[in-house]
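does this look right to u?? FHN version
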Amino acid sequence: MFIHWGLYAVPAGMWKGEAVHGFGEWLMFRKRIPLAEYGKLAGQFNPADFNADEWVKIARDAGMKYIVITAKHHDGFAMFKSECSDYNIYDATPFKRDPMKELAEACGKYGLKLCFYYSQAQDWAHPGGLNNTWDYDPAEKDFEKYYNEKCAPQIRELLTNYGPIGILWCDTPGVMEKKYAKAIVELVRSLQPDCLINTRVGHEYGDYTSMSDNAIPRFAYKKPWETPATLNDTWGFKTGDRKWKTASELIRLLVDINGKGGNYLLNVGPDAKGVIPAESAGILRQVGEWMKINGDSIYGTVASPEDPYMNNWGNITYKPGKLYLHVYKWPDEARMIYLMHMRAEVTKAYFLAQPDKEIPVFEGMRPSTDGGEPVVTQRYVPGNTTYWTMVRLPEKPITDPDTVICLELDREMEFGELI
Ligand code: FHN
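got this back:
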């Protein structure tokens, strides 16, 4: 679960009675709000309903395994207690709590990994940070000073005060010079060698690839990767944004991403009271219901051997020795799925929703297309080049919006082998 939470939750996309276009967390930039004025939002920020356990449980119940939260976004306001800048939630707001501490405890309790988003280059509150050109003269920008005074010390705090951190999630490196990306990587390695860094640290550093926002590659991508994505249109809370994706859409996107070997980092934008919007929580709960039954087809998967197909019935995810057929659309009256050229024998088949009830698997015959019970038939002749596997589906889906069939195989398949 991605969480964008900061001072921008107070105006929630509105400024002086006007609805401001764009992401909620970009409000200060969009309206070129002077820091002295924007900073006053801190006095109104008292998210008394924040409950770390509830947030972590929402993530856990949706089937999520890690949380990435904005410790500091581009506005420069730290959402943790910081010794190097009192422009932070503990010192500058009436809230007087450190939500990152509370989240670290809750993540430990419920077994999720906590990760920190840190805007390493853009900082609209520090004179040396990138992109605040309305308070500070660009010609006088001293990035080195910003890096030494704020960026590096805050990253040090984040990786020192909150236990093991899964990822330092950097963003928008912009024109930041290579030496700073290198220095951040070295700093993280020195403090927590197991902490991952995403490629948005810049200059081709990083342990895994952050795709563009909401972007899914057309084909499987062999290096580890992740798609950060919104649940509606904004990242940071905006009252006016009602464009929620449905649970069905999210499940299909998740399957698409997992089938191509990636991870889905799905965002929520809590409000100024500290509450994850009920719509987001409700949609994630529905995803979680599906995940409880079908999670085996998602966790631990690698790029599917089937890439780059688009089927008329659904999609495939894969982990060594197991092929998961995700059926979204019942193909035709015969309810038949055809997999061609599968150079592996199906040894066992079952719906994830009915793991104890095996689907019969027959060798060497074509199933009748006149309907009937679910069945898998295959023609498998080692050494031969033409193989096929057919799966007859039940009359109706078993789990909406995606019924998953697991085919256990006698061997591991290579990426791209199912063509
Ligand atoms: O500018 C940010 C944006 O506000 C948001 O944080 C997203 C999340 O991936 N990253 C940047 C734009 O790519």
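The longest helix spans residues 278-294. idk if thats expected tbh
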